[in-house]
Write a structure and sequence with these properties.
The structure is a single chain. With about 180 residues, the chain is α+β, with helices and mostly antiparallel strands. It contains nine helices and ten strands. A hairpin with a 2-residue loop joins β8 (about 155) and β9 (about 160).
Length: about 180
Amino acid sequence: MKPAGFAYHRPQTLGEALQLLAAHGDDAKIIAGGQSLVPVMNMRLAAPAQLIDLNDLPGLAGIATKGAFVEVGALARHYQLAESELVRSRCPLLAQAAETIGHYAIRQRGTMGGSLAHADPTAQLPLVAVTLNAENDIASIRGQRTVSAADFFLSVMTTALAQDEVVVAIRVPAAAPGEGAAFEI
């Protein structure tokens, strides 16, 4: 199948993306990797009139240490999580889970923020986010807020995101010295 028609937007700043979300409301969907959204659109289970592509937004793909946390930008790709020495050493469960996602092409395109925002109950990253007590930084034109992973996921494919909000970063507590992790499917 093919998706229903839609208008395509590629904002250059987060502010522009948030303005588009606020202006189009429930008619808009965010896309970055598209590994979760595109199949749903192809099956016509979702038919957004407006598609807002975040790929050009600066500063949303980094991975860095922030105090006792590893902070992952929402646009960080799955392969980056799996291959990052910082993630492997400071948050090994996240790296181990990321390397099991789909296949090569999916790991190259899929994003951490997209995986969390889609809230697919069969996906690895929502499980890891809840298990590790991650925090999600969420932005809208009203400002930013932080929501724990436990409070972010409300139900199957349902999150605490309002229609005009987007995940911008995820903070995961770094593993304590001597702490181990294992991920098995």
